[in-house]
Amino acid sequence: MKILKSSNKNFINSLNKILSKRGENLHNNIDKAVKNILKEVKDYGDEALIKYSKKFDKIDLKIEDLLLQKKVRNSYKKNINQKIFNSFLKTIHNVKKFHNLQKPKDYELSSNGVKIKSRWNPIDSVGLYIPGGKHVYPSSFIMNVVPAVIAGVKRIVCVTPPSKIINPYILALFDQFKIQEVYQIGGPQAIAALAFGTETIKPVNKIFGPGNHYVTSAKKQVFGKVGIDLIAGPSEIVVVANESNNPSWVATDLIAQAEHDINAQSILITNSDKFAQKVIEQINIFKKKLPKENTISKSLKNNGIVIFVKNILESIDIINNIAPEHLHLHVKEKVRILKNISNAGCVFMGEYSTEAFGDYIVGSNHILPTFGSSKYSSGLGVLDFMKRNSIVQITSKGYKKNQNDVQQM
Questions:
Q1: What is the pTM of this model?
Q2: Within 211-314, where are the H helices?
């Protein structure tokens, strides 16, 4: 991991250089290829979807297969472990409980013959992209669909790459939420279908859900025609810890992020050189026992940073500059630090508050802003599935009172 000291004259410049480098070369030559796919789906509809399913997913689909059939949807019933699914049900309960409190209220003002009102409505239709292939994320589906349901979205459309065996827990969740439209189509072609529509798939108003670089590029390119949730980059965490903390636990926090992706970023901020050495020793011990040792090593070598500060409270300005997706405060000064943090996707307080709990079970949303975008955006929530309009009603009295000012302006 790279070593930086906050006392160095060029510390911020050096840090920002490392942070910005991580986004380089992620989309080389991708945007152009995606643009062609989007155009072809827009021009040729279902025919293009069938073509790209064969080309990229190596699966021959017929047009009638695009909508996932009941026989496939019901196949999960013999293939899930109910004990495991009960954990998903617990997550759903907790996410609902937390997100229900986010639903906004309408309000109005009335004075001198003028009434103005702010009114919230759900978006009419949304598309949820659900990755398939190597990585399947039932938990991410829950994080998307629950706030959509709470917001009152009438039409929820799901797309997922075609596969000979679709993950049974994803199928069970479709059933749990009574999703009517599930299409087995993935990649940029799925985003194009949601944005422009085809003979089989009606377009939606906004698109949500994680995907690879091609899916991310497609979402960027269709933005404007439809809304999108956010541009998700590789996962990232900042951990603040020192000698009073457990180096093994800090090591696992950093590893849990590094194993996601070679572009993931793990940053430790500490005021103790000895503690940092202990953490690195633990990382080297742990990663040898893990199946993703190679990914962890590359991620930490390319993007891992240890930042040394003289006083642990110096971490505040550094964190707000980084604006991390995840922030884990192990230190006893955590409450004081938190009060001054404005830029972070989700903050985990204390040694026991590991990120996995936030990702899976406690009810907070794990779809969070990355690449420093927490400086201006938030994690996914109910408001993302709603829109607001203003209503103006003026009486004769209000008209007469305001007409001269309007004319003057």
A1: 0.93
A2: 213-222, 247-258, 273-287, 293-303
Nearest alpha carbon to residue 316 among 245, 377, 238, 234: 238
Mean pLDDT of the chain: 95
Which of the residues 99, 260, 326, 330 is marked catalytic? Answer: 326
Distance (Å, rounded) from C-alpha 273 to C-alpha 271? 7
Q: In the predicted model, is pLDDT for residue 241 greater than 60?
A: yes
Residues 371-380 have pLDDT tens digits of 999 999 999 9
Which listed residue (325, 330, 351, 366) is catalytic? 325
Which string of b and e fits 362-388 if b means at least 16 CB within 10 Å? ebbbbbbbbbbbbeebebbbbebbbbe
In degrees, to the nearest 5, what angle opens at C-alpha 294 toward C-alphas 292 and 298? 120
Q: Alpha carbon of 275 to those of 78, 174, 236, 246, 252: distances in Å?
A: 50, 46, 21, 9, 14
Annotated catalytic, 24? no
Per the annotation, the verdict on 108 as an active-site residue is no
CB-CB contact of 226 with 203 (8 Å): yes
CB atoms closer than 10 angstroms to residue 102: 15
